[in-house]
Structure formats: C-alpha cells, structure tokens
Design goal:
A nine-stranded antiparallel beta sheet has the order 4-3-2-1-9-8-7-6-5, with no helix packed on it. The chain starts with a helix and ends in a 25-residue tail after the last strand. With 178 residues, the chain is mainly β. The chain is 8% helix and 37% strand.
C-alpha cells in the first residue's frame, strides 16, 4: 500500500514539475515603408513590489496539517495537526483525543512527544513545496509509522480548533494514549 502511494506521489511530482517547451518563434513580414522612430517618453520607474518574506525557522511550519497514519491497533487514523504561528506548539487531534504539546525545532524538523507518559515521539519534516510534509510516529520497541501530511491552511489565516490542554497521567483512548 505504501509503495503504491509512494510511486503515485513520485509520478505526480514528476508530471507537475516537467518543463514545457516555449512556443516556436514566428517571423513577422517586413512592412514596405519604414515608420519613423519616435523616442518613447521617459516614464518614472517604479520599483517592483517586494515579495512577502517567507517565514523562516519553526514559524514556516505554521498552519493546519492533515493526514492518515497508523496508530497502534487503529489502522489509517485521521490526524489533524495545528502548528502555532510562532512554531512553538502543536494541537494534535485524532480518535485518541486532543493534545497540545510544546514543539522542538532543530533547524530541519519539528518534534514533540505525546501519550500519557510522553513516550510517543513525533516529527514533521517539510517537503520542498512546503505544502506537504513527512510525519513520523515512533513508539520505542513497539511501532514506527510514517505518512505524508498536507497543509490545508497556511499561516496567513490560522485555523481555530477547540483544544484542551493535556494533563500528565490523564486517561485517554487507545493503548498508547496517542
């Protein structure tokens, strides 16, 4: 299943990024009588509009991300991640519950811990398009899962999602808590 998905994703990326050939050059026939050249009036030059600067560091991960990942005995669980605009916290929602956790940024990826005893490690690594990301979930000695998540809402208009703060030792659904 994952190999088929990876193959389809690779083919889609190749098709989307393929360069198109330019249109052929067409020659215009010369006019029989040349027209007098008129010097164009000097117009004041406007500086091109400055592009909006992209956020850097952890804030470039900000927004709402959705995807499906294997969580314990649940197969293909829908997960929503809402990364704060400053990239310092994540609100994570799935059938196991809703958690808010602090994030760690190491220059390449975000990471956080979930579960009743914070033993479940998660990472989110942006793909070059910054609209998809590789999400990994690791439970030491039990299970490793990975999936591609899509950004469904960017930092310009962060999503609002009811989030309840998790407390240590809180009982949650699922064998590992998340």
């Amino acid at each position: 299943m994952m190999r088929t998905f990876a193959l389809l994703l690779t083919v889609a990326l190749l098709l989307v990024t393929a360069h198109r050939l330019p249109a052929p050059i067409q020659e215009v026939p010369e006019s029989p009588t040349p027209t007098p050249a008129v010097a164009p009036a000097a117009q004041p030059r406007k500086s091109p509009p400055k592009p909006k600067s992209k956020p850097s560091g952890a804030p470039r991960f900000a927004g709402t991300w959705t995807g499906r990942i294997t969580i314990d005995k649940f197969v293909d669980t829908d997960v929503t991640l809402v990364i704060s605009t400053d990239g310092t916290s994540v609100a994570q929602r799935s059938q196991a519950g809703v958690w808010t956790r602090p994030l760690t940024y190491n220059g390449k990826l975000l990471s956080w811990q979930t579960g009743p005893t914070n033993h479940v490690a998660w990472t989110l690594t942006l793909n070059p398009d910054e609209q998809s990301a590789l999400v990994k979930r690791t439970v030491p000695g039990i299970q490793n899962s990975r999936a591609i998540f899509k950004r469904v809402q960017s930092t310009e208009a962060p999503g609002t999602m009811p989030v309840r703060k998790s407390r240590p030792g809180r009982n949650v659904k699922g064998p590992s808590g998340y």
